[in-house]
Design a protein that fits this description.
The structure holds 2 protein chains of 2 kinds.
Chain A (H helix, E strand, L loop, with lengths): L22 H32 L1 H12 L1 H28 L6 H28 L5
Helix pairs in contact in A: 1-2, 1-3, 2-3, 3-4
Chain B lengths: L5 H5 L10 H27 L4 H9 L1 H29 L3 H32 L1
Helix pairs in contact in B: 2-4, 3-5, 4-5
Classes of the chains: A mainly alpha, B mainly alpha.
Chain lengths: 135, 126
């Protein structure tokens, strides 16, 4: 009976579109999205490492790709995704200990996580461009 | 007619004591990833835009290569577990789910091994 057709569409449990978007909910969704982005981004890291192991000519090419406008934007997003995912993960580690489930605490952690990820990303890239003279 | 006692029937079918393995490994690698990815970020900030010779000799140093290898291993285990959950949540077709889970493992193993190979090649003489 596994493949039997239902006679009529059955009611489904409420899904995303039924809820009012809230910050905590968006942070949870974004945690998953940033995780997926970091997953794909591992290819970039592997590519860069392989380039370094392949010799100067190929390394210069890969450096030029990451140094292009598109490459820099990708790295900027990657930095933010990494920090956002890390701060979100820290929040989960706090919850794992059974603490921090009070609504004001949850809301505070969501706000500081979002603000912290943006501020730290901005700080890192300002440092790269001002102190290091570009990536 | 089953002649076995009730105890005999259930013996050996109990918890394999691995129920929390996924949870535990995800947390273990999450905690390992904190210092290790911070190390990566600092390394990339300092050496990301540097010349080939500088980058190659820096990555060849054991003090860089070993944390980088640990970071790669911890990161790919962590991301494999995470993507596994995403696949299990969203891919409802059983066949597609199994294929996706296999591809997930292949992807993480390949990305991890490729990175580790590159780091070791730099260390042992590129």
């Amino acid at each position: 009976m596994a493949d039997a057709k239902s006679p009529a569409p059955r009611p489904l449990s409420p899904h995303l579109q039924i809820y009012t978007p809230m910050l905590t909910m968006m942070m949870s969704i974004v945690h998953r999205i940033t995780g997926s982005a970091l997953y794909i981004g591992t290819l970039g890291l592997a590519w860069w490492l392989i380039a370094a192991a392949s010799g100067p000519a190929y390394f210069d090419f890969v450096q030029a790709v990451f140094g292009s406008l598109l490459g820099q934007l990708a790295l900027l997003f990657y930095t933010w995704a990494l920090i956002h995912h890390m701060l979100g993960g820290l929040r989960h580690l706090v919850w794992d200990t059974g603490r921090g489930f009070e609504l004001p605490t949850v809301e505070l952690m969501a706000r500081t996580g979002l603000a912290g990820s943006l501020l730290l990303t901005a700080a890192i890239w300002l440092f790269i461009y001002l102190a290091m003279g570009g990536a | 007619m089953d002649m076995r006692t009730p105890l005999g029937r259930v013996r050996g079918l109990g918890s394999a004591k691995e129920g929390a393995d996924h949870f535990w490994r995800q947390r273990l690698t999450a905690i390992a990833n904190i210092p290790l990815t911070l190390f990566l970020v600092v390394t990339l900030i300092i050496y990301g835009g540097a010349d080939y010779a500088v980058v190659a000799s820096h990555l060849a140093s054991p003090f860089v290569a070993i944390p980088m290898l640990l970071m790669v291993i911890s990161a790919v285990i962590h991301m494999r577990l995470g993507m596994q959950v995403i696949i299990e949540d969203y891919v409802s077709s059983e066949g597609l789910k199994i294929i996706s889970l296999m591809l997930n493992t292949f992807f993480c193993a390949s990305a991890g091994l490729a990175s580790a190979f590159a780091i070791l090649k730099l260390s042992f003489g590129a």
